[in-house]
Every structure is written in C-alpha cells, then in structure tokens.
Amino acid sequence: MCLASGCEASLGGCCQQRVPAARAEGGMEPEGEALLLLQEARESVEAARSYRRELQQRLRGLQQARKQIRESAALTRDVLEQHFNDLKGTLRKLLDERLVLLLQEVDAIEQESIKPLDECQKLIEHGVSTADDLLQEGEGVIHEVMGEQNEKLCNFTKKALHIQLDSLPEVPALVDVPCLSAQLDDCLLTIVKNQIFSHGTVASRPPVQIEELIEKPGGILVRWCKVDDDFIPQDYRLQYRKSTANHFEDVYVGSEMEFIVLHIDPNVDYQFRVCARGDGRQEWSPWSIPQTGRSTLVPHEWTSGLEGYSLSSRRNIALRNDSQSCGVLYSKAPTYFCGQTLTFRIETVGQPDKRDSIGVCVEQQNGYDSLQRDKAVCISTNGAVFVNGKEMTNQLPAVTCGSTVTFDMEVVHLGPNNNEGGNTKLRVTISSNNREVVFDWVLDHSCGSLYFGCSFSYPGWKVLVF
Which residues pair with 103 in a beta bridge? Predict the structure, then answer.
C-alpha cells in the first residue's frame, strides 16, 4: 500500500488508475487509507501474537515430552538396577542355601560310613592288645626254668585256646565302603546364562494406551486400545485415583477393552492407567501413560424416604426391602437427557411379578404401583415392554441377576409451535441381554429431561443406575 502512493506520483499505468478509481467509487481519502493500514497492521500483530502463542504452547509440549522421556528413562534405570541387585542377592542366597544342604549331606554320609569302621578298629585294636599280652606271656613261659615249665605251658596253652587266635574280624574291601564325590551338571550354567541373557526387556512405550474418557452421570467410561501389534493380550488391568491421591486402586481386571468406573464425584479430576498381561504370561506389562478425566454430569440418584426401598450411601443403588408398602421409586430429579445412555444393572433378584417395571417417565406421579402408565416407557421383569401403559408386541428376554437394561433416546421430530405445547417424538431404544426394541414415543409437549423409576412387588430386587 505504501508503494501505491509513490506510483501515483511518478509512474503511469495501473498504479495511477487504481487510486483515483478507488476515490471515485468510495471516496477514500488518505485518512481512510491510513485507518485501513492501521487495521491491517493490528490484524497482523494479533496474528503474530496468536502464532507466537501457538509456538510457545508447542514448546511446552516438547518440554513435557522431553521431561517424560528423561523421567521414564531414569525410573527405568532405577527399576532395572534394583531388580538385578535383588536378583543377585536372591541367587547368592539360594546358592549358599544349596551349598549348605549339600555339605550337610556330605557330613551325614561321612559320619554314617565312618561309624562301623571305628567299631571295627576298636575290635582289632583290642585283639592286637590281647595278642601282645599273650605273646609276651608265651615268650616268658618258654624261657623259664624246667621246674614249673610244664604247668605254666599248660595254663598258657589253655589261655591261648580260649582267646581263639584263629578268629579274625572282617575288614570291608574298599569297593564296599563309600567313596564320596560331587556330581555337578555343567549345563546348569548354560541354562542360567541363557535365562539371564533373555531376562527382562526395555520397551519404548507400553503395549496398551487409554484411548478415550467419556463422562457419564456419576461415572467415567474408560476405553483403551492395543498399540503394539506384536503383543497378544490375555487380560487387562485398569486402575484409577483422584488427582490429589498418592496411590492408584484396581477397579477392573478382565478381557474387555472398556469399563465404566462408577462412584465418581462430579467436577473432580481423576487419573486412569491401564496395563495388560500377555498370553500365557504371569507378569503385567508396563503401565500406560496416565490420563486425566472428570465428569461434569450430575449423578443419577434415587429418591430417599420411600418406605419400600433401601438406598446405598450414594443413592444410586435401590433395594426392595421387606416392607409391605408398594409404589414406584423415582429418581431424585429429572437427570436423564436425550442423547445419553441410561443404564440399570440388576444386582440381585426377587420373585418376579408382571406389574414390575424399570423405565423412564415425564413426571413423578404418586399413587401408582408401576410405571406401566401414561407418559412412561418401561420394561417388566418378564421382558414385556410398555409404552404409555400399553404392552408392545415385541418383547425382551426376562431380567435375571446381572442383567443390564439400557435406555437410549433421541429427538426425531418437534411438532409445530413446540414451545407452546406441540408434539415431540422420541426414538427410544431399550436393550437387554443382547436384544433390543426400537420404537417412537410421542409426547404432547417438549421435555428437556426425564425422570427414571422402578417398582417391584416382592422384596429382594436390587438395582444400580448409572
């Protein structure tokens, strides 16, 4: 734009023609052009500021990535050194214990084998002593005078016969006594060496990572995925903690790749991590990078105070007690919104009744013993589906212990003048035991949110809602 003004004064052609034309059409004066230039300059400054902000954010991302690499490398070094130091100490202890046992075995064999030789030696030494005495006595008798020689010779001969000079103790041959030796298999060193050389691996990243955190009323749905194509998982292990806590807690172990973590406080940050165990292995893989999530949705709660039902501390579990009082237990507030999934899980079961019901409704209506009424959709424990009190032809499987019943709704039609009372059509999907029914539910006015409820004629039924 600065060059255009110079062109107007000194050059012909396009530059001379453009400025007058602009003035002719818009009447642009130098002041207006200056304002336009100022606006463009401001926009350029703002663009540069935004560009710098984005670059600085990426620099912070690089710093976090570098920090993660260095901290994880330092931690891995510490883990490896500690593990191998523990391993060396354990191996040394095991080898010392084995050496002591073998030496004790040598001592036992030695003592057991020497004992009969010691006894034989005592017997022989006693015989040698006896023979020495007899030899000395006999030589003395032979050299004595003739007067008493016959009698002494006779006594000596009798004594020699009594000693049995022809009886000799048996000494075992060398082949019959133990000859100790140590049998050491040299292949043990080769086996241990191979095991040590293949022991432990260093992975640049965990084989599984958390893929998605989806907020739910009173919970968070955690999904994870396998990022190592060569890793064959057998089980997964999910842990979580509040961001202010020091230790993670196990919340799920199994083969599924998603899990809803319940009992989540709203508007509180939680950290999640997952690991896996390879097929046929006992040890768990390294943990995934912790991910932080929170739920801003109000938890679903049952209304407290109804005589026939006992509630958990978080009021998300209702138990039909032994009270004779009968009626519908509603939610504390209309906390179900279209587009969400409302889930009921049957924790325990009682005796079923055709008037039992689990479902959603437009409003609380006291005086009814079931949701099988107008302005409500529900499923009975026998699997029958009711819309505004009328039973549908399609039916779901009967509810059993562990069954999960889900309700999904979406708005498919808003009638004319809806804010003034026009019709609303909701597409409802009820699922249970791998089967579902889909139908349209027509309401006479718009509902931003809905209540949920349940009713059971007999005690023993326990329902968790989330």
Answer: none
What is the C-alpha to C-alpha distance for residues 335 and 206, in angstroms, rounded to an integer?
A: 38
Q: Is 307 exposed, middle or buried (0-12, 13-18, 19+ CB in 10 A)?
A: exposed
Cα(143)–Cα(150) distance, rounded to whole angstroms?
12
Q: Can you give the C-alpha Rg of the chain in angstroms?
A: 48
Are the CB atoms for 295 and 218 separated by under 8 Å?
A: yes
DSSP at 457: S
Burial bucket for residue 306 (CB in 10 Å: 0-12, 13-18, 19+)? middle
Which residue, chain included where needed, has tokens 């391993």? 87
Q: Look over the chain and give the mean of its residue pLDDT values, rounded to a whole number.
A: 86
- 323 falls in which pLDDT band (50, 70, 90)? confident
Nearest to 466 by CA among 318, 297, 299, 270: 299
Hey, what are 107's tokens? 């001592």
Distances (CA, A) of 419 to 362, 423, 446, 447: 16, 10, 7, 10
**How close are the terminal C-alpha atoms of the chain, in Å?**
63
Please count the other Cβ atoms lying within 10 Å of the Cβ belonging to residue 405.
Answer: 24
- Please name the residues in contact with 295: beta carbons below 8 A apart, sequence gap of 6 or more: 215, 216, 217, 218, 219, 220, 264, 266, 267
Is the pLDDT at 330 greater than 50? The verdict is yes
Strand positions, DSSP E, 33-144: none
